[in-house]
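Notebook, bench 3.
Goal today: get a predicted structure for FAD dependent oxidoreductase from Dyadobacter fermentans so we can plan the truncation constructs. The sequence was checked against the plasmid map this morning, with no discrepancies at the termini. Length recorded as 510 residues. Pasting the sequence as submitted so the record is complete.
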Amino acid sequence: MQTSAVQKEYDFVIVGSGLGGLACANILAKEGYSVVVLEKNHQIGGHLQVYSRDKTIYDTGVHYVGGLDEGENLYQFFKYFGILDKLKLKRLDDDRFDVIRFEDGSEYAYAQGMEHFEQKLISYFPDEAAAIRAYCQKVTDTCAKFPLYNLETAGDNYLNDESILTLNAYDYIASLTDNIRLRNVLAGNNLLYAGVKEKTPFYVHALILKSYLNGAYKFVDGGSQIAIQLSRAVRQHGGEIYKHKKVTGAHYNEKGHITEVVCENGETFRGREFISNIHPSVTIDVFGPERFLSVYRARVQALENSVSTFLVHISFKDNTFEYLNYNIYQHHIDNVWEGVSYDQATWPQTYFICTPSISKKGEYADSMSIMCYMDASETAAWADTFSTVAEPGARDAAYAQFKKDKEALVLARIETVFPGISAKIKSVHSASPLTFRDYIGNGNGTMYGIVKDSTSPMKTRINTRTKIPNLHLTGQNISLHGILGVTVSAFVTCFSFLDKEKLIQKVKNA
């Protein structure tokens, strides 16, 4: 690095290259600012990362995405970023992009498009047509209260509407119908937000569901292409991105402004403004706990993270298992809300199944991903170990055995969904909460960040601005998780520096 006397000062130093960091970098670089993104890992992208085993590509976090039909919100955001036409996409089945499946083998398909979705549900539950219509209307009305979700900057705002923030998803769905199976079908994809019966707000459920109804797609050959294309766009606009740069601290001037961040290897990066795309509680540790108000620090560090995951990847023998152009949410319990607080004796009680879309494969699947809830306490015995490509570390034989035992339980369950599948498997790999913790850098390997709570909505709300005048936050803890939620959070972060109306108009005109 150059000596500090002539060291470059960036307009923006962004810590973390997850989607939030890359999206902020793209927005700001497009607007003419000098930007640098610092990533601690060997690969950029956070949850967008993929890895390869036995010549098979596996996604770690992004298995499918919504809002990508022409003119929809994510479609317009990706057009604005200049990456839409560079992404390899495959639209999921119109009549069944998600299938909610139960222990008795019964299946209920979610169809794309709100009207189609509504009609499909009514075909399963003809006596419940009124409840289903009321539900679909409520989803539509709720989403209308979120301006940015609809590419607007003004209008009805959810922040001023207590009834939106405090409406509980489970309670609302239960209020519509006494039909237990219908209740479970309506909430059957709650793995998308790690739904907690007593806490998850209905708006979280509604925003996520509706985005998938507006165009559900898989990324052909993996979700890492979003990170790759965004990073190319950032560099085209003059931005810089560096890997293996783990930020561990910061220097301040006498006014309490950050002047530069310090990396683990001693390198420093000077900046005028700083954006953290890492978990808020980790951000506090990195930038100095004493710099934050004790009340804020205590609140953020006490917030509950959503559960983590045990992810099993199966590689198939050639031409043995047909590709599924839909996802399955499998429940072995009667109440779909109970999977998140599972009983270890009957784990996994609920899980997500998909077959990634691979360009070189036709009607047959190359692999299958199975995502199960797992609490970080299950891997507590190895909590003091650390292992990534950037910082390789060994975990003991007991950990390897733990993973093998869990894989066996998952495969036994999958055999009940697809009898005979075991004979088609070439190899099995898995990732535990520790894998996600080490790569993403969040306390417990949380899937979806901080738990949103309908009983105290303001407690779980985190502002993009911090008490450090030139430190801002972005990422899944700011608005909502997922590709769309994190993209929206990046725009919210950038509104501190850019004209909100003009920026969103550019997105709409893209």
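The chain is about 30% helix and 20% strand. The radius of gyration is 22 Å.
Flagging this for group meeting.
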